[in-house]
């Protein structure tokens, strides 16, 4: 993957579109190439772990997880003595991913076939489906069952003797729907299967993340799983056709429907997710919103009663076909459109899909080029899933685009904290995607780096020749600074840890809204350490400290552009940095020499990555790009408001505390002939400054509320 450009800004009418990230791919074809058994790279990696009793497959959308499960399930039944395979998906629409498939013609030893009477991803009531699932367990000749998550929960509760699952494989697609929460019934089913039976469990998810606020599994259960991790970077860089991906944020004022026409590109296959009816962005009338959207696209011509597809003619005379998955629940059309989209001949002719809660995870539309999502998404997992709708590899599709249209917060809203949090959430979501799309950073112990035997040296030389520059950066650590268990956790759970930190860290919020001083050191000392300690209490303090430094080091490395040098015989004094006036000067530049060694340029000095020490980069803010973006995206007065809010969070400021400090603020003003500075290096002055800004903000809010009430009374 080549370098990333950030901070591009495009004016579209009154609307400002801010390009957060733009990524180009190497198009190696590796992720879609099949081996002698017909398996793609990810599928082969999963099949290597076929003997695992508990297997967690963490891989992005479109990399073939469904077929990977077919390979694994067939091997479990044919070669491992498993009698029953139960595949559970979150929505019945995803069930089509497990249709009969001829695997043997591509080199596998068996074909995938599902008896139609045990395909419960079809219309029908749950009572009937539960009864059929019970029959499946009693049918000695039946091996494979497909059902929804809900059906699995219902029929599992009906089975009194859980020992019938002892020789079963239970596979959960879109595993992030599971939760450790007490009222999450699917999570309870998985826990019981793992603790009260000898069942095998395969969990698959298109996101790496444990969950957004609640863990998917208990730490004890999660440790039992072997992992197969396949990154977005590996997937997208290995495509044949897709060359680039753009992630943009657009801000609107007023009604989001008025902003959509400025963002629509009717020459692209587009999926539009309208806001949840309970969100601030929604008018509350989803049918009217869909109607206006369709009117913006063009004049209605007809609606096919068999497929539900709407034909419209755009202003330029182009005929477009629209699938409305929102209004499809009325007038006897329920499920008709969605069912039609399962047929490739229908799906291939669609130009626009309008959805609300559907067509996210597991929905396969390879031709989709543009995902336009309205409203803040507080779930990291949901954003990755939506972007995944547009990042399928498809002949003729060179660019994929994700745009999130969000409301511009104002300083006059009643709940300023909520508005600021929403905006910060939008930024951090995009940042996490950049973490996913950056080259891999892999940690090794120093003693493991250099081969010891002639054979190992020769093998390392071959691997070095094969290795593509930029695909992976290896960083070594001292042998005595981290245990083997801690090293394994860092390399396997890095993305999980970052997701948790980004979702809950006040340090990160401060880094984004204020630019952030000593942010890296604060992350190590507080937030990253807290997350690791929460999920791995068995680790020593020294392990947690070393791991925290490793995580933040990787966060810093991954947020920096990778510049490639060609035909150099030594590390250059000045790397070739593209001329981009909008690109801020980077404190670190990474280059690689002709021997494939990686060097980091810190200020004016190149340092071998193998010798990299956190102390050398600890002052760098990995969220600097987010600060630059947010500075451009919002008005100066709102940025100031956000900075004040962040300071208040950091200082744990409340109105009562601020009022208690008011006499000290007055004393400071008299003694220094100025107000206290909230950015002061003096702790007490900083606290007084934060308190003063907090009081001012509360006064502005009260005045705005009073003015609004007076206006309403007068009218």
Write structural notes for this entry.
This protein has 715 residues and is of the alpha/beta class. The protein has 4 domains: 8-26 and 239-408, P-loop containing nucleotide triphosphate hydrolases (Rossmann fold, 3-Layer(aba) Sandwich), CATH 3.40.50.300; 41-235, P-loop containing nucleotide triphosphate hydrolases (Rossmann fold, 3-Layer(aba) Sandwich), CATH 3.40.50; 444-627, no CATH class; 651-714. It has 24 helices and 21 strands. The strands form 4 sheets. The chain has a 10-stranded mixed β-sheet, with helices on both faces. A 6-stranded parallel β-sheet has the order 5-4-6-7-3-8, with helices on both faces. A 3-stranded antiparallel β-sheet has the order 19-20-21, with no helix packed on it. Helix 18 (519-535) packs across helix 19.
């Amino acid at each position: 993957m080549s370098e990333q450009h950030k901070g591009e800004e495009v004016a579209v009418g009154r609307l400002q579109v801010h390009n957060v990230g733009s990524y180009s791919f190497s198009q190696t074809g590796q992720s879609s190439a099949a081996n002698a058994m017909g398996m793609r790279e990810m599928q082969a990696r999963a099949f290597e772990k076929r003997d695992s009793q508990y297997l967690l497959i963490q891989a992005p959308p479109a990399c073939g997880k469904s077929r990977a499960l077919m390979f694994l399930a067939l091997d479990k039944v044919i070669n491992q003595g498993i009698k029953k395979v139960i595949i559970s998906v979150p929505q019945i629409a995803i069930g089509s991913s497990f249709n009969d498939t001829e695997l043997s013609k591509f080199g596998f030893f068996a074909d995938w076939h599902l008896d139609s009477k045990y395909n419960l991803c079809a219309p029908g009531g749950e009572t009937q489906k539960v009864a059929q699932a019970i029959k499946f367990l009693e049918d000695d000749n039946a091996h494979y069952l497909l059902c929804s998550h809900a059906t699995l929960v219902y029929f599992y509760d009906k089975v009194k003797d859980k020992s019938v699952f002892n020789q079963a494989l239970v596979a959960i697609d879109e595993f992030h729907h599971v939760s450790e929460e007490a009222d999450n019934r699917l999570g309870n089913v998985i826990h019981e299967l793992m603790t009260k039976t000898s069942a095998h469990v395969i969990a698959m998810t298109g996101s790496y993340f444990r969950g957004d606020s609640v863990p998917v599994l208990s730490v004890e259960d999660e440790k039992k799983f072997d992992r197969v991790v396949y990154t977005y970077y590996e997937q997208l860089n290995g495509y044949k056709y897709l060359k680039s991906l753009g992630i943009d944020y657009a801000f609107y004022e007023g009604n989001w429907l008025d902003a959509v026409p400025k963002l629509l590109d009717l020459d692209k296959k587009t999926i539009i997710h309208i806001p949840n009816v309970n969100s601030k962005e929604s008018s509350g009338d989803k049918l009217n919103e869909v109607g206006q959207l369709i009117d913006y696209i063009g004049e209605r011509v007809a609606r096919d009663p068999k497929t539900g597809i709407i034909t419209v003619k755009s202003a330029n005379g182009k005929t477009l076909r629209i699938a409305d998955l929102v209004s499809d629940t009325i007038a006897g059309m329920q499920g008709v459109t969605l069912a039609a989209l399962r047929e490739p001949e229908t799906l291939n002719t669609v130009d626009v899909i309008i959805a609300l809660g559907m067509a996210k995870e597991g929905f396969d539309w390879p031709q989709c080029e543009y995902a336009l999502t309205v409203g803040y998404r507080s779930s990291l997992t949901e954003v990755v899933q939506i972007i995944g709708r547009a990042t399928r590899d498809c002949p003729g599709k060179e660019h994929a685009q994700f745009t999130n249209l969000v409301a511009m917060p104002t300083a006059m809203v009643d709940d300023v904290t909520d508005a600021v949090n929403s905006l910060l959430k939008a930024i951090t979501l995009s940042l996490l995607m950049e973490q996913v799309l950056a080259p891999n950073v892999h940690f090794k112990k120093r003693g493991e780096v250099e081969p010891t035997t002639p054979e190992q040296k020769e093998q390392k030389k071959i691997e070095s020749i094969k290795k593509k520059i930029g695909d992976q950066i290896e960083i070594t650590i001292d042998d005595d600074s981290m245990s083997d268990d801690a090293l394994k956790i860092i390399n396997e759970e890095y993305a999980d840890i970052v997701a948790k930190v980004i979702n809950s860290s006040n340090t990160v919020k401060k880094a984004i809204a204020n630019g952030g001083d000593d942010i890296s050191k604060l992350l190590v000392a507080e937030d990253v350490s807290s997350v690791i300690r929460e999920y791995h209490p068995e680790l020593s303090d020294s392990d947690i400290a070393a791991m925290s430094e490793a995580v933040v080091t990787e966060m810093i490395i991954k947020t920096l552009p990778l510049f490639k040098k060609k035909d150099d015989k030594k590390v250059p004094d000045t790397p070739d940095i593209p001329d981009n006036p909008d690109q801020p000067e980077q404190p670190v530049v990474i280059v690689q020499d002709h021997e494939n060694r990686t060097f980091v340029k810190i200020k004016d000095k190149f340092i071998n990555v193998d010798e990299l020490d956190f102390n050398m980069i600890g002052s760098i803010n990995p969220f600097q790009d987010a600060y630059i973006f947010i500075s451009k995206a919002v008005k100066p007065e709102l940025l100031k408001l956000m900075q004040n809010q962040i300071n208040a969070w950091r200082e744990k400021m409340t109105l009562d505390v601020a009022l208690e400090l008011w006499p000290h603020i007055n004393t400071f003003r008299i003694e220094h002939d100025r107000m206290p500075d909230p950015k002061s290096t003096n702790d007490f002055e900083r606290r007084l400054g934060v308190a003063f800004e907090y009081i001012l903000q509360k006064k502005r809010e009260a005045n705005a509320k009073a003015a609004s009430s007076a206006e309403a009374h007068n009218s």
